[in-house]
Amino acid sequence: MFIVEILLLEPDLFDTYQVFDPSLWCNNEQLVNQFSTLLQAQAGQPKTGYSATGSDAGIGATTHRFTQMLGGKTERKITWH
């Protein structure tokens, strides 16, 4: 979750991000729910991200929803794999 938080709140710290089974369900899915707003506020160079998750239905569902959002229209701010 820390890496996703850095990506959305302090994106200029890194150019590439790797996320493995982030705890995005924590804090009532706050980062996922604020994704669009946080991404809109970003300026600067586009970022690249890679993610992987397990098959746990509860935890994986939130991560899957988040990666779908990243794979959608992000105005070329993030290229996600």
Describe the structure.
This protein has 4 helices and 3 strands; from the N terminus they run αβααβαβ. The chain has helices at residues 2-9, 26-33, 35-40, 57-71, and strands at residues 16-20, 47-52, 78-80. The model has no long low-confidence stretch (mean pLDDT 79). The protein has one domain (2-80). It has 81 residues and is α/β, with parallel strands linked by helices. The chain has a 3-stranded parallel beta sheet with strand order 1-2-3, covered by helices on one side. The longest helix has 15 residues, at 57-71.
Distance between the termini: 17 Å
Residue-averaged pLDDT: 79
Structure class? alpha/beta
**Backbone CA Rg:** 12 Å
Concise synopsis of the structure shown:
This protein has one domain (2-80).
Annotation keywords:
3-stranded parallel β-sheet, 81 residues, alpha/beta
Question: What is the element layout, followed by pairings?
Answer:
Blueprint lengths: L1 H8 L6 E5 L5 H8 L1 H6 L6 E6 L4 H15 L6 E3 L1
Parallel strand pairs: 1-2, 2-3
